[in-house]
Design a protein that fits this description.
The complex is a heterodimer.
Chain A: E1 4-11, H1 22-37, E2 46-50, H2 59-67, E3 74-77, H3 83-96, E4 102-110, H4 140-155, H5 159-173, H6 187-192, E5 195-197, E6 200-201, E7 210-219, H7 220-226, E8 234-242, H8 257-270, E9 279-281, H9 287-296, H10 305-310, H11 330-334, H12 338-353, E10 369-376, E11 380-387
Parallel strand pairs in A: 2-3, 2-4, 9-10
Antiparallel strand pairs in A: 1-7, 4-7, 5-6, 8-11, 10-11
Helix pairs in contact in A: 1-2, 3-12, 4-9, 5-9
Chain B: H1 2-9, E1 14-15, E2 20-21, E3 27-32, E4 38-39, E5 58-60, E6 64-73, E7 84-90, E8 96-101, H2 106-111, E9 120-130, E10 136-144
Parallel strand pairs in B: 1-10
Antiparallel strand pairs in B: 2-3, 3-4, 3-5, 6-7, 6-9, 7-8, 9-10
The chains are: A alpha/beta, B mainly beta.
Chain lengths: 388, 147
């Protein structure tokens, strides 16, 4: 594989855009990323579009119908919540393989005020046979709630530990103008907000929303030609895993094993260890998810997530923390427009590594290595490690 | 012809999922691979643990198991009554099922979650709904074991 670099990035503020179409959201992010790269759509040789809820509606082509119909190959990808990061990885592979030198990855989504996600209908045509609520719950808050409960069972972790993750995320988000929510919340606010699926209260669940993000990736040769002396991050690892067979995975999705395997591969490929990571953007769809991923990504040892939180782990150094996680506000505050998420966290990591003004207020000092993790239920896990 | 007539006149109850059998008394079934993996799928094509191809022998599953994890659902789709307790129950045959947990107070479960972990439970069935053709649809749940 050839070296691949992130030349340009763009995202729009996550939020609600009822007056815009999905391709319009994607087009806006794409134009920002192209401008950031100093390129035009005419320079792009290959385009990957990630979108989940309109997966059958040729979103990638419709974005080009907005920004430039150059006739280039377009691939539309879907991989649950890992849709956007899978789009980035496809673009990475297209350049790494030597087939193309400049590729664009865009992730976009419009969820509106969609409610709960994830009940499995398994091709049932008569609603009388829907199992949701009759044979337990397959809704996302339940699946991820139980991941927190399992941690509770194994290590005695409490709801309060998990609630602190949400307090931290909201604190971080106040410094991110791209975040859907920018309000601070207290531990009391989080613990006393409406329970959704124990132990996840309302503020421990990510919101639904709309958004888009884009990244222009280039080969090393092109970087030399185009970067004009600007130093750009290298994609030192781009890993994708699916759920391996584990004891309960088919009954209750195991979100940990595939993340652990992806982390191991990513660290090996990048030739670094967890201590070398300056900042991590991980998939905190629920506070309970962030809790287990601290350990899955080896940011702390097994069973040490509660201690990690107590000692300021995951908090921005400006707030007295270390090993910062989700300084963007994470999915909990920044939002989680499904297809956009995996590209947005590449933007966030890139901004810190390149001292981009867009991360100005929340810049992680001395950031040299950044990690972006996404998990899509079903399941798919991506990890990207970017280095300067 | 005889078969068609039978389908038309069969107004008996139907299980909500194919791995629930109602006769002779309600019980769960699984497909068991030689490697030991058990699947809640009577038509399992192959084993995703070892890769062996099916068909696999059907095994009757125990009606008793132990709670591994649970959650209390406070928000669900319209028409689903909340709060209720959802749980993952481990069966002795080496497979887990997702189920509602009856006779456990949701509020108490949240206060003392450790009391639920490992709790011995047993399966019960109930009419969950009526399908478009008028059949009673039977679901299963688990509740703390009664002796």
């Amino acid at each position: 594989m050839r070296n691949v670099y992130v030349l340009g990035t763009g995202m729009i503020k996550f939020g609600r855009y009822p007056d815009r179409t999905v391709p319009q959201l994607g087009a806006e992010a794409a134009i920002i990323a192209l401008k950031d790269a100093g390129l035009s759509i005419k320079d792009i040789e290959f385009f990957v579009s990630g979108n989940l809820l309109q997966a059958s509606a040729m979103v990638g082509q419709r974005i080009l119908q907005q920004i430039g119909q150059t006739g280039i190959p377009v691939v539309n990808v879907t991989n649950a919540c890992a849709t956007g990061s899978t789009a980035v990885r496809e673009a990475y592979m297209a350049i790494g393989s030597g087939m193309y030198d400049i590729a664009l990855a865009v992730g976009c989504e419009q969820m509106g005020k969609a409610g709960l996600l994830g009940a499995n209908r398994d091709g049932v045509t008569d609603p009388a046979y829907n199992t949701e609520g009759k044979l337990g719950s397959g809704l996302m808050p339940a699946v991820f709630g139980q991941a927190g409960i399992e941690h509770m069972r194994k290590y005695g972790t409490t709801l309060e530990h998990m609630a602190k993750i949400s307090v931290k995320s909201h604190q971080h988000a106040t410094k991110n103008p791209f975040s859907q929510y920018r309000n601070e919340v207290t531990l009391g606010d989080v613990m006393q907000s409406r329970m959704i699926a124990y132990p996840n209260t309302l503020y421990m669940c990510c919101p639904t929303g709309d958004g888009a993000a884009a990244a222009v990736l280039v080969s090393e040769d092109k970087l030399r030609q185009l970067a004009a002396g600007r130093k750009r991050p290298k994609i030192a690892a781009s890993v994708l895993t699916s759920d391996p067979w584990t004891e309960r995975d088919l009954t209750w999705p195991d979100v940990s094993t595939l993340t652990r395997s992806a982390a191991k591969q990513a660290y090996e490929t990048a030739g670094i260890g967890p201590k070398d990571v300056s900042l991590t953007e991980l998939h905190d769809c629920f506070a309970t998810a962030e809790l287990v991923h601290y350990e899955n990504l080896q940011l702390c040892g097994d069973g040490e997530a509660a201690k990690f939180i107590e000692e300021g782990g995951g908090k921005h150094p400006d707030l007295g923390g270390h090993a910062p996680v989700n300084v963007s506000g994470g999915l909990l505050s920044k939002g989680h427009p499904l297809g956009a998420t995996g590209v947005a966290n590449i933007c966030e990591v890139t901004w810190h590594l390149t001292r981009d003004d867009r991360a100005k207020e929340r810049q992680v000092p001395d950031a040299k290595v950044g990690m972006a993790h996404v998990i899509g239920l079903g399941s798919a896990c991506t990890i990207h490690i970017l280095t300067m | 012809m005889a078969q068609e007539a039978q389908i038309v006149t069969d107004s008996g109850p139907r299980p909500i999922v194919p791995y629930l059998k109602l006769e002779p008394k309600p019980h769960l079934i699984g497909s068991k691979c030689a490697c030991g993996a058990v699947y809640l799928d009577p038509k399992r094509v192959a084993c995703s643990k070892c890769g062996a191809s099916g068909p696999f022998p059907t095994v009757d599953l125990s009606e008793r198991g132990k709670v591994y994890v649970f959650s209390v659902i406070h928000q669900s789709f319209p028409g689903i009554k909340t709060p209720y307790v959802t749980a993952i129950v481990d069966l002795p045959e080496g497979v887990s099922v997702r189920t509602n947990l009856l006779d456990v107070d949701p509020e108490q479960a949240q206060k003392e979650p450790h009391k639920i972990f490992g709790m011995p439970v047993e399966m019960v069935t109930q009419v969950a709904s009526k399908d478009r053709e008028g059949h009673d649809v039977i679901a299963f749940s688990f509740r703390p074991t009664r002796n």
